[in-house]
Amino acid sequence: MTTPSRRAVTGVMAILLALICAYVGVRYSTQPDRAARCPAGSFCLYGGKDGTLMTASAPAAAWDLTGSGGPVRTVRNSSQYWACLYEKPSFGGRVGKVPPGGTQDMKGSATPSVASIKAAKSQAGCLSDYERCPERSLCLFREPSGRGPMQYWTAAAPEYGSDWHGGAGSVWNRSVQAACLYPAPGYRGQWTAPDGQHYDSFVVPPGSSTTLGAPYQTAVGSHRLVDDPSEC
Questions:
Q1: What share of the chain is helix, strand, coil (3-state, %, to 5)?
Q2: Which of 1, 45, 51, 145 qualifies as a FRET site for 134, CA 20 to 30 Å off?
Q3: CA triplet 112, 109, 89: central angle to 5 degrees?
Q4: Where in the chain is the domain with CATH 2.60.20.10?
Q5: Which is an annotated Pfam family here (predicted)?
Q6: Which pLDDT tens digit goes with each residue over 166-175?
Q7: Residue 122 near residue 185, CB atoms below 8 Å
Q8: 130-231, which class in CATH?
Q9: Which helix H or strand E contains 149, and what residues bound it?
Q10: Minimum mean pLDDT range among 105-114, 119-128, 152-161, 175-184
Q11: Number of neighbouring beta carbons within 10 Å of residue 119
């Protein structure tokens, strides 16, 4: 048998539970949908408790997101381009792709962290970043296919100093001359290939881009720009 006091307590608890459920229901039902909050033609990056870290109009690119305010948890692509996600600044490291109109939860994805982002017209465009090399320049990249940190020059460089240390993963010669790459400063040094052959220089014709294989990627210390490749 239920006493009046117990019935009163039960009634109060039921009312409190109903109020809590109503509050939670209203709070979450009014939470804006990610897709609705991301403007058309934009990339939207969310972090924390669904907070917006960055909204960029495609085809804009972000070179370094490490200071954006926290880890990226979700990416919404409301543009007509593919959103290319990179785990390192300057489009380096592992690559993730979000199709036009798609949403990517970064947890468990190919790129659990996002440090840079760019637009591409196709999936294949996410795997190459040669296009950021300025016209009439020689560009060296840390990683293959024009990815990772980049440095460019418009003239010969007998030494790179603090501009560039060590080797290069790829190169694009957008100048009008042939580029001669050398393993050491002062247009000196020699590479030894796996087959034992020795090479004093690596020639990149004008307008050409390539990923550098062994042994060339291990050291690039200077370069010249010449009219005749035989001068290398």
A1: 25, 35, 45
A2: 45
A3: 40
A4: 35-127, 130-231
A5: Inhibitor_I36
A6: 789 999 999 9
A7: no
A8: mainly beta
A9: strand 147-153
A10: 105-114
A11: 21
Strands 103-105 and 74-77: antiparallel
Q: What is the DSSP letter of 67?
A: T
Residue 35: is its pLDDT beyond 70? no
User: What mean pLDDT, rounded, does the chain reach?
Assistant: 81
Q: How confident is the model at residue 34 (pLDDT cuts 50, 70, 90)?
A: low
pTM beyond 0.85: no
**Gyration radius from the chain CA atoms:** 27
Q: Which residues contact 126 (CB under 8 A, 6 or more apart)?
A: 82, 84, 95, 97, 118, 120
Using alpha carbons, select from 226, 213, 158, 151 the residue that is nearest to residue 189: 158
Q: Give the number of residues written for the chain.
A: 232
Per CATH, which fold does 35-127 belong to?
A: Gamma-B Crystallin; domain 1 (2.60.20)
Cβ–Cβ under 8 Å, residues 132 and 174: no
